Inverse folding.
């Protein structure tokens, strides 16, 4: 088992201990163990029992549980408490706004044992009758349950990539000699995937018979030309039958309704397409890749879509964290990983002091980190490390340090991490104040959303983008697949207002650097050219940008 899997087991055990109203000392010790395990630089599976018992934050009892997990793959105490807790109560842990203590009240005092019952209780105004559940909390719980139910069974794009590749290979093997294409939301590079779609050059009955013979998938639905299956991996797959019209069906299933409607208005010739490019050529249109088949405007482009932003176009790693705050690796390790990937520079952007939960840097630590970066820049030249900080945007819109401290950085990423439930009026005032601060270089993950988990900050995007244009502030496209924030749908207006976008991985480890690819996928949908992506600037261009901006701001 990996450290993350072991930490997850301890975290769940801590929550279920609280839900069941057991000794709070136990749950705290399990939580502490989970936190300590997540921060370990080595895998527990590579250590000895004696070493495990000596790790700070892990007591003798927790050490025994770790050994049990490593040896058997399970934890009897966790299995027992799961069995003793109704499944619907455990599922409540997925609902934002209610923690284990509140779930204990919901279960033990309200006698509710499912999310459906809980939602009904909210609608009946029953929650606010209990201590700790005011009217506002009740509405929040109801809204979050609704959000959870709508997204249940959906997956992040990043979660489906490996499955998509494996299923594509498997289906091609099953239908050897027939053309098979992946289509649907995955082909369009949408951020949320409900099922993986494939078009097969075969009739519906033959497809059903072949799948049944292989006994791999469970049939859920069947219609005239499609079959929906459930897989052991948890994700559903939809197979489209297209024995005589596979290219037409591929275009149809890989386009939005708006794009397809516009495309179908074009006068057609009675001619079958050999491939997707031929399909567009017959209609006297440039080939439109699936990830751009969203609106009709793309059909008006007179220039072929010959180049799209690629991972190789990114020249620097902007927005990453080190073990000075909540990152897993040292600054030097992060820098060497960047050098290995052929990057020219890195902006280390650890958390600011208000982010105490992430070990944000106090003023004295900043000076020490800057001295360390100076030493590394001599050692690693010509690679360059820039001094940055991810400054919390405080409730009033101010940044987290005095101007004197802010001026010591090469650049500032300003982000909201707390109090995400402001009204739009207050949220807008808060962000606009941060944007107008002369030290703000980049506005980080603009809405604070977490896909499939947390709604974004309520914003008037056009006003925010207008403010960024007026104050020469770059907008981050946070490439973490859980965020992808700013939404690609808003980037078109930012480009219209000549606002720079910066594709940043928000990497908290070396492996997190690879998240850049998900930002690239989103940027491709927005047709972001590399010239308008700050992290595509060469080292000299990036240095010039920062110097010129400081000069104009007089800081």
């Amino acid at each position: 088992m990996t450290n993350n899997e072991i930490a997850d087991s301890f975290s769940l055990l801590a929550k279920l201990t609280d839900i069941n109203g057991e000794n709070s000392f136990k749950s705290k010790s399990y939580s502490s163990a989970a936190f300590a395990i997540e921060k370990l630089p080595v895998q527990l599976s590579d250590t000895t029992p004696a070493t495990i018992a000596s790790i700070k934050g892990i007591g003798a009892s927790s050490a025994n549980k770790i050994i049990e997990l490593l040896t058997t793959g399970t934890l009897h105490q966790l299995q027992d408490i799961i069995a003793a807790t109704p499944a619907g109560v455990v599922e409540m842990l997925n609902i934002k706004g209610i923690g284990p203590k509140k779930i204990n009240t919901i279960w033990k005092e309200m006698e509710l044992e499912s999310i459906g019952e809980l939602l009904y209780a909210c609608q009946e105004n029953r929650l606010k009758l209990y201590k700790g559940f005011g009217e506002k909390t009740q509405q929040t719980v109801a809204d979050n349950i609704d959000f959870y139910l709508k997204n249940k069974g959906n997956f992040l794009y990043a979660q489906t990539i490996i499955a998509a590749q494996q299923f594509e290979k498997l289906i091609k093997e099953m239908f050897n000699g027939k053309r098979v294409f992946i289509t649907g939301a995955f082909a369009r590079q949408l951020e949320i995937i409900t099922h993986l779609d494939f078009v097969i050059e075969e009739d519906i009955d033959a497809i059903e018979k072949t799948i049944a013979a292989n006994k791999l998938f469970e049939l859920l639905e069947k219609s005239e030309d499609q079959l929906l299956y459930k897989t052991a991996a948890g994700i559903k797959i939809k197979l489209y039958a297209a024995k005589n019209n596979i290219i037409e069906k591929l275009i149809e299933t890989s386009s939005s309704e708006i794009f397809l409607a516009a495309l179908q208005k074009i006068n057609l010739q009675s001619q079958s397409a050999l491939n997707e490019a031929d399909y567009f050529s017959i209609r006297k249109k440039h080939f439109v890749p699936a990830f751009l088949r969203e609106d009709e405007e793309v059909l008006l482009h007179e220039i072929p879509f010959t180049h799209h932003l690629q991972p190789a176009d990114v020249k620097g790693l902007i927005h990453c964290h080190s073990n000075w705050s909540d990152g897993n690796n040292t600054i030097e390790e992060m820098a060497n990983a960047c050098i290995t990937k052929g990057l020219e520079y890195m902006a280390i952007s650890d958390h600011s002091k208000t982010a105490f939960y992430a070990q944000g840097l106090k003023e004295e630590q900043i000076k020490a980190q800057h001295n360390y970066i100076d030493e590394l820049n001599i050692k690693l030249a010509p690679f360059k490390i820039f001094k940055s900080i991810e400054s919390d945007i405080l409730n009033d819109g101010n940044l987290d340090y005095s101007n004197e401290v802010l001026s010591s950085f090469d650049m500032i990423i300003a982000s909201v991490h707390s109090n995400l439930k402001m009204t739009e009026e207050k949220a807008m005032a808060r962000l606009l104040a941060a944007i107008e601060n002369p030290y703000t270089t980049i506005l980080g993950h603009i809405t604070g959303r977490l896909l499939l988990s947390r709604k974004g900050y309520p914003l008037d995007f056009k006003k925010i983008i207008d403010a960024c244009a007026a104050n020469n502030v770059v907008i981050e496209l946070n490439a973490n697949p859980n965020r992808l924030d700013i939404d690609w749908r808003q980037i078109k207006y930012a480009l219209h207002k000549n606002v720079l976008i910066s594709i940043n991985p928000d990497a908290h480890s070396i492996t997190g650097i690879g998240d850049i690819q998900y930002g690239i996928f989103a940027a491709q949908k927005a047709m972001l050219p590399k010239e308008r992506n700050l992290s595509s600037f060469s080292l000299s261009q990036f240095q010039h940008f920062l110097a010129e901006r400081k000069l104009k701001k007089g800081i």
